[in-house]
Amino acid sequence: MVFDYASALQNMQLNAGVWISADDPLDLFHPDTQAIRDTAGQDFHYQISKINEYLSSSDAYSAGSAVTKLTAKGKAWMSESNWETGANATNAEWAIAMLLEMIPILNQYYVIDPLGSSDREIYFQYLVAMYLVSQEKN
Q1: d(CA 68, CA 63)
Q2: Which domain holds residue 120?
Q3: Which of 20, 105, 128, 129 lies 20 to 30 Å from 36, alpha-carbon distance?
Q4: Are residues 77 and 14 in the same domain?
């Protein structure tokens, strides 16, 4: 299904009647973010926006360095910066930190294992978890 969608998108052959519906396979790529807010009882809008923005197109392996920095320095390392060397957190590391805030809830639906995975692989694990949260709420 994913490859069919990718092919249709690449060839500009998307048909709204086929791909956009109540039981739409695109829900996997655009899960209902209200479901996670309702489930968690808190607004993850900022975290979701950073995860979508920074992990979806990154082929780096940022989780290891993000977890190491978080363990050593706590969350304060993300806002510190050194003008000579740049910010202490890369965009992808920041997104991993945002995802780690959501993992206790998301792992109830699909276990996300960020260590050893590329940022994009982590992003797809996140999408699956978000999709399953949204399906339970429907």
Answers
A1: 8
A2: 32-137
A3: 20
A4: no
Query: What is the model's pLDDT at position 63?
Result: 94
- Most confident stretch, 11-15, 23-27, 66-70: 66-70
Q: How many domains does the chain have?
A: 2
| 36 and 94 share one domain | yes
Q: What is the per-residue pLDDT across 53-105, written as a single tens digit (0 to 9) for each?
A: 999 889 999 999 888 888 877 666 666 555 444 457 788 998 999 999 999 99
The pairing of strands 86-87 and 81-82 is: antiparallel
d(CA 123, CA 120): 5
**The one-letter amino acid at 96:** I
Tokens of 50: 């950073």
Whether 118 contacts 95, CB under 8 Å: no
